Amino acid sequence: MMSAYAVVYAFVIVAVGFAAVTLGAAKLLRASVPYARKESTYECGIPAVGSTEVKLNIRFHVFALLFVLFDVEILYVYPWAVTARELGRLALVEMGVFLGVLLLGLAFAWRKGALSWE
Amino acid sequence: MTTPEPAAAAPKPVAPKYVPPEPVLNRQNGRLIEDRFSTWPTEVFKKRWSRPGYQRGAGMLVAIFVGLGLTGGLIGELAKRADGFYALLGSFAAAQGLPPLALDAGWIAIKVLIVLHIVLINGLWSIWWERKISAHIQSRVGPTYAGSPKGFNFHGWAQTAIDGIKLLLKEDVTPAAADKWVHALAPGLVIAPCIIAFAPVLFGDGLAAASLDIGTLYIFAFAGISVIGIVMAGWASGNKYSLLGGLRGAAQIVSYELPRGFSVVPILMFAGSLDLQVISNAQAGYWHGIIPRWFIFYPVVGQLAFVIFLISSVAETNRTPFDIPEAESELVSGFHTEYSGMKWSIFFLAEYAYVLLGSFLLATFFLGGGASPINALPFTWIPSWLWMLGKAMLMMFVFLWIRWTLPRFRVDQLMDFTWKFLLPWSFVNIAVAGLYLAYWLK
Q1: Count of CB atoms within 10 A of residue A83's CB?
Q2: Residue B257 confidence (pLDDT) above 50
Q3: Helices B423-436 and A84-111 meet at what angle, rounded to 10?
Q4: CA-based radius of gyration for chain A
Q5: Does residue B422 belong to the interface with chain A, where contact is any CB pair within 8 Å?
Q6: Neighbour tally for A90: CB within 10 Å
Q7: What's the sign of the alpha-carbon dihedral B73, B74, B79, B80?
Q8: In the beta sheet, which residues pair with residue B31?
Q9: How many CB atoms within 10 Å of residue B278?
Q10: Using an 8 Å Cβ cutoff, are B210 and A4 in contact?
Q11: Which residues of B touch A10 (CB under 8 A)?
């Protein structure tokens, strides 16, 4: 038998193929009667004013940065978690220090108001 | 009309007995039907079993369930004998003179197509189920008529299938302000990672399309890609509400991914593997022969991890307590305002597929996978895939129940909840799990 990852590649092909076939079949089957009024942007019925290229609040960026920080942390924690039993108490304490430092970072962000949406 | 007799001695007035109104009859497709909206619910509901359509429909639904169960059982039992089946295919391929690569490709194709159909049939089933549950919880009228060309209208069992056909044929309106290519690509980028993420999902002991040793990480990684599709959908629609919905969706999903990832760390510590099969096997057995050794029954840590994982799984699917990205009352419907037809339905197929994924993950991580909850003969005899399915369906019911019971978060509360509550508590949970490992489980 092939390795398990061959199945993963097959999943990639099937999933992309499924999306393409479904959307393509719908394109072939459906009616299409476009006109200007129908294609206008729907913002509660009145004509839309201005473009969508608007200034966005910086908070989205702050949350994205915090997410990257902690998501990379997950990648460090998982290998330790899997081998936590064999590595014993020293590694446990080390991971405590690691998580403690990151918790300090979280506390800092919290204190600075980076975690509040408003 | 004759004149009424004069009352000789006025008797004591008796309160008239309540006579329920006769159901109003109406015509639909030439047949007489009851107008349920003038008599709903009690009067019609009392008589429903006397309607032949209801009986036949009930029979049909039972037949569907039995058929699905038998199919599932067939697949489950076949998969148990997968090696023999593979050998059979191999001998067939050898007889036809096919190369071994073709045999493997065919074998993999069977596995992948089975999982793909699980995802698609789940869409049919769970949308119908969700509508019935919402009807019961919120006193709405759920699907009632669909599927009744000959009177087989048991609870509108065909509703989702008919909706699917409608959506396939419905016109797709792409707004003039939209970025056409990104707009068309976004639904594909939401559904494709979702299907790919199902590769290592455990449907029973040994029943996974791919037994990956990094299963947990793989699922989280691929499920995370769908965020990009949501941002693309919001960005490309050319609609300010959609843009805001897409960005809020990104902020929310990304934020809830952290407690979701950290909440399973105790599970990984106890099980010592990322492989879903090993995690499931680690929960086999019973404490004192009674309490199953499922991770949810590990004191404090198990329950806390379960609750955090459940909440973040609901948030990942953008469903109601957390549906800020598509909040109807403030953002029209968020990132899919400008979508219609098949593109729109693909977003919903992905949403329900993620509900199924979350249900199976909850069942695998916390509810013992395919293990029986009761250590007694008739229960331990039930095959593991049936337990798995039952637990996953129970979890799916919890998902739907939450959606139709709880009101929506405000956006700042939503972000506070994950960053200031779930994330710190998931760290505490890891610390307690470390103490368990050091002093109790060794």
Answers
A1: 15
A2: yes
A3: 150
A4: 25
A5: no
A6: 8
A7: positive
A8: B28
A9: 16
A10: yes
A11: 108-109, 111-112
Q: Identify which has the larger pLDDT, B427 or A56.
A: B427
Report which secondary-structure segment, H or E, holds B366.
none
pLDDT at position B307: 92
In this complex, do B272 and A83 lie within 8 Å of one another by their Cβ atoms? yes
Q: Give the tokens for residue B239.
A: 């609609």
Q: Give strand pairing partners of B287.
A: B291
Give backbone dihedrals phi and psi of B199, rounded to 5 degrees, phi first: -55, -50
The shortest C-alpha distance from B324 to chain A (Å) reads: 13
Q: Do A30 and B415 touch (CB under 8 A)?
A: no
CA distance B85 to B103: 12
For chain B, the first-to-last Cα distance in angstroms comes to 95
A77, A82, A95: residue with CB nearest B272: A82
**DSSP H or E run through B32:** strand B31-34
- The fold of A4-111 is Methane Monooxygenase Hydroxylase; Chain G, domain 1 (1.20.58)
In angstroms, the CA B222 to CA A15 distance is: 12
* pLDDT(B6) > 70: no
Q: How many residues does chain A have?
A: 118
pLDDT at B362 over 80: yes
- Confidence (pLDDT) at B101: 74
Cα separation, B265 vs A63, in Å, equals 22
Is B173 in CB contact (< 8 Å) with chain A?
yes
Name, in order, each residue with C-beta under 8 angstroms of A94's C-beta and a sequence gap of 6 or more: none
Q: Find which of B60-74, B130-144, B352-366 is predicted with most confidence, using mean pLDDT.
A: B352-366
The DSSP 8-state label assigned to residue A72 in this structure reads H
Which pairs count as long-range contacts for A103-109, CB under 8 Å and 24+ apart, including other chains? A103/B424, A103/B427, A105/A69, A106/A70, A106/B419, A106/B423, A106/B424, A109/A66
**Long-range contacts (CB closer than 8 Å, 24 or more residues apart) made by B213-218:** B213/B273, B213/B274, B213/B275, B214/B274, B214/B275, B215/B274, B215/B275, B215/B276, B215/B277, B216/A78, B216/B264, B216/B268, B216/B274, B216/B275, B216/B276, B216/B279, B217/A78, B217/B274, B218/A8
Half-sphere exposure of B173 (CA within 13 A, CB side): 16
Using CA atoms, how far residue B39 sits from B21, B143, B263, B284, in Å, is 8, 17, 49, 52
- Residues forming beta bridges with residue B28, ordered by sequence position: B31
Instruction: Enter the pTM of the model.
Output: 0.82
Chain A residues 43-102 with a CB less than 8 Å from chain B: 43-44, 48, 50-52, 54, 56, 59-60, 63-64, 66-67, 70-71, 74, 77-78, 81-86, 89, 92, 95-96, 99
Using CB atoms within 10 Å of the CB of residue B255, give its burial: 0 to 12 exposed, 13 to 18 middle, 19+ buried: buried
**Mean pLDDT in runs of 10 for chain A (118 residues)?**
75 89 85 79 75 77 86 88 84 88 88 78
Please spell the DSSP secondary structure of B290-325, one letter per residue: TEE--GGGSTTHHHHHHHHHHHHHHHHTT-GGG-GG
Which two three-digit tokens encode residue A42? 């729907």
